[in-house]
Automatic annotation (TrEMBL), chain A:
One of its GO terms (cellular component) is maltose transport complex. Transmembrane segments: none annotated. It comes from Mesorhizobium tianshanense. It is a peripheral membrane protein. This is Lactose/L-arabinose transport system ATP-binding protein. The keyword Transferase does not apply. Belongs to the ABC transporter superfamily. The keyword Cell inner membrane applies. InterPro entries: AAA+_ATPase, ABC_transporter-like_ATP-bd, ABC_transporter-like_CS, ABC_transpr_MalK-like, ABC_transpr_MalK/UgpC-like, Mo/tungstate-bd_C_term_dom, NA-bd_OB-fold, OB_MalK-like. It is found in: Cell inner membrane.
UniProtKB/TrEMBL annotation, chain B:
Keywords: Cell membrane, Membrane, Transmembrane, Transmembrane helix, Transport. Pfam families: BPD_transp_1. Residues 64-278 form the ABC transmembrane type-1 domain. InterPro entries: ABC_transporter_permease (IPR051393), MetI-like (IPR000515), MetI-like_sf (IPR035906). This is Carbohydrate ABC transporter membrane protein 1 (CUT1 family). Its main location: membrane. One of its GO terms (biological process) is transmembrane transport. Belongs to the binding-protein-dependent transport system permease family.
């Protein structure tokens, strides 16, 4: 087992820079998830760790050894691909053992490793089948099995669940989590699905446009985001953003006025923006309360109500036209077309999306 | 539904009519003609006249031997060469890929008479470039068209030159359909490029290779142009006469249509039989 260190890693395709100096220290045995929208560079970063992409600058170290110029096979990693990348003409057993056989690994040891991986992933009954005779979930297990038999120091997963249906995705998510506990190996996992990131990760790395936006534990990112992008990306339904204007800075913090006249005072330790400047107030759906029971009240018009059983989501708009989502217990939802809610907890962002703390 | 079918068949009727007259009927008729003694006037039905002659005809067995010899040597060499060319064309290191693809495919587009004339000139005893090259490295000139073995070699070289690029382009399409991440997975498994080629590329390319081989077998069974034009009607002394050439000689020089039809059906039967054996040998295990 080994940790992974990225030090100011840069990737350029010609003059076009894709990754702009990513730095990250992944501890031995840690489960780290790279998350971000399409094109943010998360898969490229993973492929650079694997050695499938050259790095244009910086340093990558695995287990304390710089691997910038080390061949992919010698980095002690195993990778699970989005498309599984199984050898279509080989049986499951051959898929699992191929790499070991090609490298002259003793047959007894190969058989032992293949058997162990098959048992861990419950695919012992599928060993004679070809990939085309397997379901998506079974193929995914074989792909993970092929990574396990290598007994790597670091597992790399490149959006491994994105080709599965919703139910199977949840099931495989739990299995990967169980696998991490069982093997205790360092795992780096790429996804665009923030729910996968939140449920699997010890730490999440949020990427956007080749920049690392924030690194932290899932609940830390959720409750203490560094910027508006992270605040909006982590959490489902996403955080509501309501435009506001700075009124004044007082002893208890900064007071802002939301479009529609609602005033809200936020404690602030750092410098405050100039009075009159534009800011954004972020409120998570579950941080709206009943009128009069929070920091400020807000009148909204209800557009649509979604009942999910115990919880309901109210899709509403403010007087200024900001669309917001409110989470409520199903029993508390009325048919009233207009309601007043309180803001119990909120976040403040400047006009560049930076968090004001 | 029946009415709709009738409408569809009315639209198809012109094509089906032309197809029946110019394609289906000649095939059936030539089969019937193969049972006719066509050296007599009028023709008479005699099943053994042509088929009986075929079994004991030294010219037929000479042509069959020549055809099979070309098939056994030239087809494997050409397919191997085509695979190598396809792999090179697929290499990311290759510059001017479009130019090479065109160059490899160009021989198919060149007129048969023109390319045959060029090959005759290249292999000419006195002023051909091939003999000049042999002389330049100290080897004696070869009289390519007066001896059977060199004449056969010229035919094989010519056919390979003409069709290797064509097969390479088909194989290239097969190569490009193999997902890149399979190779990446093998790279991570520390599988060398050579082993990746042997254990991944070739097995995944097998259906395309078989397709090319079957096409080549059919083409070689019908081989006509090269022995007709390059070695001057199967020369020297019938040494490069193929089944296609024998068919032509019997049908259009001697006007013995019955025997020519029997030869044609034998060629088709052999092509089907060899292709089926090929497909059976290379079938996927269940």
């Amino acid at each position: 087992m080994a940790g992974v260190l990225l030090n100011n890693v840069v990737k350029r395709f010609g003059d076009f820079e894709i990754i702009h100096g990513a730095s990250l220290d992944i501890a031995d045995g840690e489960f780290v998830v790279f998350v971000g929208p399409s094109g943010c560079g998360k898969s490229t970063l993973l492929r650079m760790i694997a050695g499938l992409e050259d790095i244009s600058g910086g340093e990558i170290a695995i287990g304390g050894k710089t691997v910038n110029d080390v061949e992919p096979a010698d980095r002690g990693i195993a990778m699970v691909f989005q498309s599984y990348a199984l050898y279509p003409h080989m049986s499951v057993e051959q898929n699992l053992s191929f790499g070991l056989r090609m490298n002259g690994n003793p047959k007894a040891d190969t058989d032992r490793r293949v058997k162990k991986a098959a048992e861990i992933l419950h695919i012992t009954d599928l060993m004679a089948r070809r990939p085309r005779q397997l379901s998506g979930g079974q193929r995914q297990r074989v792909a993970i099995g092929r990574a396990i038999v290598r007994e790597p120091q670091v597992f790399l997963f490149d959006e491994p669940l994105s080709n599965l249906d919703a139910e199977l995705r949840v099931q495989m998510r739990v299995e990967i989590s169980r696998l991490h506990k069982e093997l205790g190996t360092t795992m780096i996992y790429v996804t665009h699905d923030q729910i996968e990131a939140m449920t699997l990760a010890d730490r999440i790395v949020v990427l956007r446009g080749g920049h690392v936006e924030q690194i932290g534990r899932p609940l830390d990112l959720y409750s203490d985001p560094d910027n508006q992008f992270v605040a909006g990306f982590v959490g489902s339904p996403k955080m509501n953003f309501i435009t506001a204007r700075v009124l004044e800075r007082g002893a208890s913090g900064v007071t802002v006025e939301l479009a529609g006249g609602t005033r809200l005072t936020q404690p602030l330790n750092g410098p405050a923006p100039e009075p009159g400047s534009k800011v954004v107030v972020g409120v998570r759906p579950e941080h709206f309360g009943h009128a009069g029971k929070g920091d400020a009240d807000l009148s909204v018009t209800i557009d649509v109500v979604e009942h999910l059983g115990g919880t309901s989501f109210l899709y509403a708009s403010t007087a200024a036209g900001d669309d917001i989502v409110i989470q409520r217990d199903a029993a508390e939802v009325s048919d009233a077309p207009e309601i007043t809610v309180s803001i119990r907890k909120s976040y403040l962002f400047d006009d560049k999306g930076r968090r004001l703390r | 539904m029946r009415y709709q079918n009738a409408t569809a068949y009315r639209f198809l009727a012109p094509y089906l009519l032309i197809f029946s007259i110019f394609w289906l009927w000649p095939i059936i008729d030539s089969f019937l003609i193969s049972f006719q003694a066509t050296r007599t006037v009028p023709w008479r039905f005699s099943p053994t006249f042509n088929w009986g002659r075929l079994i004991g005809d030294p010219a037929f067995f000479n042509a069959l031997k020549n055809t099979l010899l070309i098939l056994v040597i030239q087809v494997p060499v050409m397919i191997t060469l085509a695979i190598v060319m396809a792999v090179l064309l697929n290499s990311p290191l290759l510059k001017a890929r479009g130019l090479f693809r065109f160059a490899f495919f160009a021989p198919v587009v060149v007129g048969e008479v023109a390319y045959s004339a060029v090959f005759r000139l290249m292999f000419n005893l006195d002023y051909g470039i091939i003999n000049k090259l042999l002389n330049s490295v100290g080897l004696p000139s070869i009289d390519w068209f007066s001896n059977v073995t060199p004449a056969m070699a010229v035919i094989m070289i010519a056919v390979t030159w003409r069709w290797a690029g064509y097969n390479a382009i088909i194989l290239l399409a097969g190569l490009q359909s193999i997902p890149q991440d399979v190779y990446e997975a093998a790279t991570l498994d520390r599988v060398s490029k050579l082993k990746q080629f042997i254990y991944i590329t070739l097995p995944l390319l097998k259906p395309i290779i078989v397709f090319c081989a079957v096409l080549s077998i059919i083409g070689t069974m019908q081989l006509f142009t090269e022995p007709f034009l390059i070695t001057e009607r199967g020369g020297p002394g019938g040494g490069t006469e193929t089944l296609g050439l024998l068919l032509y000689r019997q049908g259009f020089r001697s006007l013995n249509f019955g025997y020519a039809s029997a030869i044609a059906y034998t060629m088709a039967g052999l092509a089907i039989a060899i292709s089926l054996v090929q497909l059976w040998l290379t079938r996927d295990p269940k």
